[in-house]
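Input record (one chain):
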Amino acid sequence: MVPTQDRESFSNSAFTLAAGLSEAARRLDHAESVEEFVAAVQAHHQVWRRLREVGPRLGVTIPDRILAFSLAAPAKVRHGLDDDAVEALIRWDRAVSAAITEAFPG
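The corresponding structure, as predicted from the sequence alone:
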């Protein structure tokens, strides 16, 4: 059995991560200027860096190709990130957020 403090810590980390992913998706989806879009991609990158660090401890497994693509997004902005790629980032943010929320309810 996991000690209560550890469960609470996991739950807090999971909530923070899920909220960050949800917010990253919202920002990517609603960016109205180049500056907002670049900031949204940077925010997405920061959340995915955290996901790479914390995810395994929370039992979150992300396929390597998705993780690599998500982490490379800021570099891809300079060379062009097409609409399909942005939609994929948004979809992954939302899907992983939902999976974490389901695994760590309340």
